């Protein structure tokens, strides 16, 4: 585990700490994946796909790091609690949330507090918040 800044951490996903996605593959590409799995290069299709994604991320790593620095994006896991949002609201300094990874908003945050404390939300990855908070922020989520 590497602590990047504040309460942001970069972690390898564990079951439950990942987002499920669906992809469409052509039959020939899928056949190649299955062949590599059958021949023991990968444990299963998911192992192949994760490895391919990580290889591409590594390949473009420097460009991604420059983009993260340029756009002031927090990298990893970032949790926004009620106290932090109340402090932003009370100081009249709404937050611009920019996260590459997973951003979570605490379950005790009300839609009114979220609207008062959050100016904008841009998450490359996943945003976890109550449906009511997501609805309250819908016009601020990019």
UniProtKB/TrEMBL annotation:
InterPro entries recorded for this chain? RHH_8, Ribbon_hlx_hlx
**What is one Pfam family matched by this protein?**
RHH_8
| Identification of the protein by name | Transcriptional regulator, CopG/Arc/MetJ family
Residues forming coiled coils: none
GO biological process annotations for this chain's record? regulation of DNA-templated transcription
């Amino acid at each position: 585990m590497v602590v990047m800044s504040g309460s942001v951490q970069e972690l390898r996903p564990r079951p439950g700490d990942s987002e499920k996605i669906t992809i469409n593959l052509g039959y020939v590409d899928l056949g190649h994946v299955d062949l590599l799995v059958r021949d023991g290069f990968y444990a299963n299709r998911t192992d192949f796909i994760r490895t391919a994604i990580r290889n591409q991320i590594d390949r473009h790593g420097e460009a991604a790091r420059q983009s993260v620095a340029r756009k002031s994006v927090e990298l990893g896991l970032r949790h926004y609690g009620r106290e932090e949002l109340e402090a932003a609201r009370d100081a009249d300094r709404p937050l611009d949330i920019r996260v590459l990874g997973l951003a979570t908003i605490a379950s005790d945050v009300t839609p009114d507090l979220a609207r008062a404390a959050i100016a904008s939300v841009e998450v490359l990855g996943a945003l976890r918040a109550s449906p009511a908070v997501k609805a309250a922020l819908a016009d601020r989520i990019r």
